[in-house]
Amino acid sequence: MFEHVDAYAGDPIFSLMERFVSDPRPQKVNLTIGFYFDENGKVPDFGCVDAAKAWLADNPLASPVYLPMDGMPDYRAAAQKLAFGASLPQVQERLSAIQSLGGSGALKVGADLLKRYFPDSQVWVSNPTWDNHHSIFQGAGLATNTYRYYNPQTRQLDFNGMLEDLSKLPAQSIVLLHPCCHNPTGIDLTMEQWQQVIAIITERKLLAFFDMAYQGFSEGLDEDIKAIQLMAESGQPFLLSQSFSKIFSLYSERIGALYVVCETPEIAQTIQGQLKFTVRTNYSTPPSYGARLVNHVLGNEALTSLWQAELEQMRQRMHDMRQQLVSKLTGLRPDCDFSYLAVQRGMFSYTGFSPAQVARLKDEFGVYLIDSGRMCIAGLNNKNLDATAEAFAAIC
Ligand code: LMR
User: Fold this and answer.
1) Measured in angstroms, how far is the CA atom of residue 281 from the centroid of ligand 1?
2) Which of 18, 70, 111, 236 reaches 20 to 30 Å from 174, CA-CA?
3) Closest Cα partner for 186 from 274, 318, 368, 97?
4) To which H or E segment does residue 242 belong?
């Protein structure tokens, strides 16, 4: 019956993490998957989340029935305040929103919706992007293509190439954008550059789909949504996926949201119905625990302040690790220019190392990066920083 089924080649990020785990070398360094590790190499439990868990344990649901198809209303209200910040009033009336299974779940529901109503549209993602963007959109039946983003020669943004490629797209093309902490390069657009991109989106009637998994990891919670706010001000329709995996350290709860900013409140109501239908025909309704945790934190002033402080500490630690790595590398190899690493932002950096260099790092030094040369900055700490810098210096 199943003889014709092809073997799954495996996911490049998850497969590598499995290889890391089975590597017996004690000095190995994990710079692969996007988990935030603290200074002790542990994925932290947030104090604010622990407090929320304790509260939920003392206050069980009166009636633990299914959530609505589009999720917990209070959670959605709290999550959208965070995602849109001060520009929420500009979109509130014309906003459809659902609770999702993390950021990936939001992308998938959005992709299914787009395939149903824009069957002839194709998706354009940055080159490079998170590998799973291709898989999720293709899995929904949409063809994916790339627009220029990263110039391997300069190790900088290829902004002219990006603009040129976007300017040629047919109307209703779907353009996937990272509002902050671009995964995998860590290279973000300036506000002036966002303005130019949004002008092209508007002029060419493109459909922007923002994927936001790292709000607060670049400059701060408000600063990191500036691109979303510009888009909201433009009055154009767009989609936004939001994830709490990283910024609440709630990876396993699968908690996020999908927003569709529509042209009118009437259309938003119709889209809300279609989003519910998409959920119902995929997994019926979302789970409640992660939503209740996030909602409890965001609904409580003291816990929100605690969360913001915890997030700020993570942001600062990643920033420090990045700067320290660059300064150690510059000391070890004054003949090489590593300044491009210092200006990248968020959880990831694109080292520019070739697959052969990445293989040497893994095989000779036990330092694991994704084959593309992406490293997870949050995997660095004061115990492995010297060894990592020495390994980088030896292979570059
Ligand atoms: C990553 O890019 O490493 C993370 O987003 C985790 C994942 O799901 O791939």
Assistant:
1) 26
2) 70
3) 318
4) strand 238-243
